[in-house]
Amino acid sequence: MIIEIPTHSDFSIHNIPFGIFSTPTSSPRVGVAIGEHILDLVEVGNTGVFDFNLDVLNKSYLNAFIALGKSVTSGVRRSIQAWLQDDNGPLTAAMFVKQTDATMHMPIKVGDYTDFYSSIEHATNVGKLFRDPENALLPNWRHLPVGYHGRASSIVVSGTDIVRPKGQTRPDPEAPPVYGPCKLLDFELEMGFVIGKSSQLGQTITTAEAPDYIFGMVLFNDWSARDIQKWEYVPLGPFLGKSFASSVSPWVVTMDALMPFKVAGPKQEPEVLPYLQCSEDYNFDINLEVGLAPKGQAETIISRSNYKYMYWNQLQQLAHHTVNGCNVNIGDMMASGTISGKDEKSYGSLLEITFAGRQPLTLETGEERKFLQNGDELTLRGYAEKDGKRVGFGSVSGVILPSNS
Ligand code: MN
After folding, report:
1. With 170 labelled, which of 27, 89, 228, 377 sits at a CA distance of 20 to 30 A?
2. pLDDT tens profile 344-357
3. pLDDT surpassing 80 at residue 1
4. How do 389-401 and 300-306 pair as beta strands?
């Protein structure tokens, strides 16, 4: 092995995720996470081993590299796996930098961002909290993957501080609305997938074609201002309660790396329309956890969930997204919606964990939380593991800062 990879590393030889990094002496460029290091693909390219235009590696985003197509990018991944085990191959120790010496950047130039609502546990919990405990799911929910078009400009990379949004709320339904800092700031445990191939306006992508259009996945935190959201969302849906920020993990894990962790999804009842039916399984067994650390204090794990619980899979999401002829572009981000599991320890938002603030959560520090406070650091982590092979996402973190005055 050219480089030491710690056992249980998210970034094993089975992973090979792509990201954008810089160091004090190098501009943003494409790299691959391996153990505690980053392999500089510009340096690898300089040895002459790649037969594509090396400009795509010297970029601030992965989009141009992804645009080479899976026939190229999957080949790069397989070559790196082989070279890591070849002492006489093109890789040298000088091509690696320590992750602790690098700055990670937003990996994708996101053109359009869509957020789905595809966890039946989450949709049921929210329906019970806000509407009717007896009929928590709305009539459309089991027939189509509900979603909305989000804001791409405010998607930020892990480590970016999150300024508490200000806006209009109506805390007292008998009184006029008020303006000020959000009081009910929340996270949403989600995963996003990145479009790796563009479609044409008017074209629909079938569930059978969809895998070819999906490059890889990231952890995704859809920060949510519940008080702003609750007042504004009728009748057109989420707006400023969501658009102030979403955070993503810096390494894009390819679908190639995730294939060994493919599992069947939940049985869909009633049967879905033909355009939403899939001939292959496309759920993934990815363990997820959420950590909350008050400023300067230890972290408490406040939830453990799994991506495999998704009722609607990515193929169905993409088929539905394009069934009306809407085109998708390389770099578009499709988020899953909050991923909640079956019990209270697996809920993917504070809204659910604290029953809309009615049952505060006690952290290991003894502090209580209904929603996020200034100084809190919220971290999502995720990994898949099977037969001793681990493919992980690392983490996505953000610290809550007070509102701007
Ligand atoms: Mn969401």
Report:
1. 377
2. 899 999 999 999 99
3. no
4. unpaired
| Neighbouring-strand partners of residue 253 | 217
Report CA(4)–ligand 1 centroid distance (Å). Answer: 38
Determine the Cα–Cα distance for residues 115 and 271; give it in Å rounded to an integer.
23
- Over residues 205-223, the mean pLDDT reads 98
User: Do the beta carbons of residue 383 and residue 392 sit within 8 Å?
Assistant: yes
**Alpha helices per DSSP H over 88-204:** 120-130
| Tokens of residue 314, six digits | 């990515």
332 alpha carbon to ligand 1 midpoint, in Å? 16
Count of residues making up the chain: 405
Split at pLDDT 50, 70, 90, the class of 133 is confident
Dist CA 162 CA 202 (whole Å): 38
Looking at residue 73, what DSSP letter applies? H
**Domains with residue ranges and CATH for the chain:** 18-105 (2.30.30.230), 113-401 (3.90.850.10)
Q: What is the pLDDT of residue 299?
A: 98
Q: Which two tokens stand for residue 313?
A: 């899979």
> Which distant-in-sequence residues (6+ apart) come within 8 Å of 216 by Cβ?
17, 18, 193, 194, 196, 252, 253, 254, 255, 257, 258
Catalytic residues: 122
Angstrom distance (rounded) from CA 262 to CA 99 = 29
DSSP assignment string, 291-341:
EEE-TTS--EEEEEEEGGG-SS-HHHHHHHHHTTS----TT-EEE------
The sign of the CA dihedral 229, 230, 231, 233 is: positive
Is a pLDDT exceeding 80 seen at residue 294? yes
